[in-house]
Amino acid sequence: MSRQVVVATALGLDPARDRGRLEAAAEALGGRLEERAGHGRLHLDRPLPRERLEAAGRELGLDLNPLPEGFDPRRVALLLSDMDSTLVAAETIDEIADLAGLKPQVAAITEAAMRGELDFAEALRRRVALLRGLEAEALERVWAEGRLPLSPGAEALIAGLRPRGIRSAVVSGGFDYFTARLARLLGLDAHRANRLGMREGRLTGELEGPVVDARAKAAFLEELCDRWGLRPEQVVAVGDGANDLPMLRRAGLAVAWRAKPVLREAAPVRLDRSGLDAILAFIEP
Ligand SMILES: [Mg+2]
């Protein structure tokens, strides 16, 4: 009979203070509770269907995810994260558009693209075209005005990877103006995103170079593996949108962060009520 380990996480979970909630989860699922630093593990005698875990999680305000079988946490060497609505709690292009007074037009295209209803590259080109003529200084304001807040647990996640020598990188269908700043802020090892065309201090409404779409995100994972001599199974990938799907499929561990349904369904780990640092609970040796 195969067993199952379920990882219980939540934003700010303290196993000592929240023991009642963790014990209730253990009882609901018929398992034994093991308290760990910052999370709980439920040891079950047999695997339960996803729906059972999700229903219990909803009721108790926990994310209850099975520890994926065949994934070796000791070999993890790279965390690769999406930026918009993953490492930062905003869509950067929507924030640029807001400064330009174009937010409703741009946000409508973003939403449709993230639901997988619009080809990503086409949606991106249409939105970038709307920004034509905008002063480049608007990008600096988006960054400086705190319009791109880090998602809860982002800093703790990166800080938790460092002592184990696990590298980190960000890849985005957004813009390298912001991934570069984010990489500097958090101390990430690499970044990749689209480059906005600029002329005489204004956006041209076009992109320079190849579009970073879903395929390019997955290709970046493989490029980093080549660069650092890793296998894709050693990568943990996290994202929220349809354009993260190919990247997540290549990774050893795929994490859907407050994700759109299309991505959520495809990821073995789904975080809806936790901080990003909950990822550390899955890669503890
Ligand atoms: Mg995203």
In the CATH scheme, what's the topology name of the largest domain?
Answer: Rossmann fold
* CATH domain class name of the largest domain: Alpha Beta
Tell me the overall shape. elongated
Radius of gyration: 20 Å
Q: How much helicity do the residues have?
A: 25-40%
Record the strand order, biggest sheet.
Answer: 8-7-6-5-9-10-11
| Percentage of residues in DSSP E strands | 15-25%
Report the bound ligands by name, code or SMILES.
Answer: magnesium ion
Instruction: Assign the structural class, choosing from mainly alpha, mainly beta, alpha/beta, alpha+beta, or little secondary structure.
Output: alpha/beta
Q: How large is the count of helical segments?
A: 12
The N- to C-terminal Cα distance equals: 24 Å
Mean pLDDT, all residues: 94
Count the strands? 11
CATH superfamily of the largest domain: HAD superfamily/HAD-like
- Number of folding domains? 2
Note the run of SSEs as H and E.
EHEEHEEHHHHHEHEEHEHEHEH
Care to describe what's here?
The protein has 285 residues and is α/β, with parallel strands linked by helices. It has two domains: 64 residues, Alpha-Beta Plaits (2-Layer Sandwich), CATH 3.30.70; 209 residues, Rossmann fold. Helices cover 38% and strands 23% of the residues. It has twelve helices and eleven strands. The chain has a seven-stranded mixed sheet with strand order 8-7-6-5-9-10-11. It has a four-stranded antiparallel sheet with strand order 2-3-1-4. β9, α10 and β10 form a beta-alpha-beta unit. α1 runs antiparallel to α2, α3 runs antiparallel to α4 and α4 runs antiparallel to α5. It is elongated, with a radius of gyration of 20 Å. Bound molecules: magnesium ion. Magnesium ion (MG) binds next to loops.
